[in-house]
Design goal:
By secondary structure, the chain is of the alpha/beta class. It is built from nine helices and eight strands. Helix 2 links the parallel strand 5 and strand 6.
Length: about 270
């Protein structure tokens, strides 16, 4: 359970596995103290995760945060761990950080996976989650509805959404219940994310993935990232914002991309 001083703050990180290094940047409100299911698909990697500034066990500076701050935190962590070049998976807000990382520090990133995220700007931003945390009486229902648009239909069987609903009912420390200063600062920075100009310069081999029923990072946003990043592939999956849990084909497709020697996904 190591802590490390990076970019002017004390940051908490975890590293496990013995394979090639892989940085996974998590989403809004993520805290490594919260339980997560084992992912056997990651067994071939040395996986690096960390709590972002203001969240979990990482320091929460009393200042406004920018998207550049989050990217600089990640870059400084890699420098401190003497990792020169790494594959990166950015999930949701973590995908926004990954975009900032690859555009600010292109030499640090090998292959890039952008999952259920958006390029930002006026026309292609993810849903503004400040609306959810301000919706006091209906936070959980509002959250579930944008996680997966099918949730609004009573005849859909969505076991993952039901599991999330049960978890939110049982744990008041999960997003969107707990709104800390650090989370509020994260949401403000998130609302300013815009890589619609800089993604044009990304030459990295990139896989863009998302769920067909995601109302947070809808398909049009994935398509725009695919259009902007010249060396990118796009794959959509059965599910919403939680497609990585909902579609059993999602993680194998990501791993195939990371392990492939060519630009073509394995069948």
């Amino acid at each position: 359970m190591p802590f490390i001083h990076v970019n002017g703050i004390q940051l908490y990180y975890e590293m496990e596995g013995d394979g090639s290094p892989l940085l996974i940047i998590s989403g809004t409100g993520a805290d490594l103290r919260n339980p997560r299911p084992k992912n056997p698909h990651l067994n071939d990697f040395r996986v690096l995760r960390y709590d972002q500034r203001g969240l979990g066990q990482t320091a929460s500076p009393n200042a406004n945060y920018t998207m550049a701050d989050y990217a600089d935190d990640a870059a400084s962590l890699l420098d401190s761990l003497e990792i020169d070049h790494i594959n990166v998976i950015g999930i949701s807000f973590g995908g926004m950080v990954a975009q900032q990382l690859v555009t600010r520090f292109p030499n640090k990133v090998n292959k890039l996976v952008l999952a259920c995220t958006s390029p930002g700007g006026n026309n292609f931003s993810s849903f503004d989650l400040r609306e959810i945390v301000s919706d006091s009486p209906n936070k959980v229902e509002s959250w579930l509805q944008i996680l997966d648009s099918r949730y609004k239909s009573s005849d859909e069987n969505l076991p993952i959404l039901n599991m999330i609903k049960d978890a939110l009912t049982a744990n008041s420390r999960l997003f969107p219940h707990l709104v800390t200063d650090g989370l509020s600062r994260q949401l403000e920075a998130r609302s300013q994310h815009d890589c619609t100009d800089t993604l044009r310069d990304v030459s990295h081999e990139t896989l863009i993935v998302g769920g067909r029923y995601d109302d947070i990072a809808p398909l049009k946003n994935l398509l725009e990232m695919h259009r902007l990043i010249k060396n990118s592939q796009l794959q959509s999956f059965e599910g919403g914002h939680l497609f990585l849990m909902q579609d059993k084909q999602a993680w194998p497709a990501i791993i195939s991309f990371l392990l492939s020697e060519s630009d073509t996904l394995k069948a």
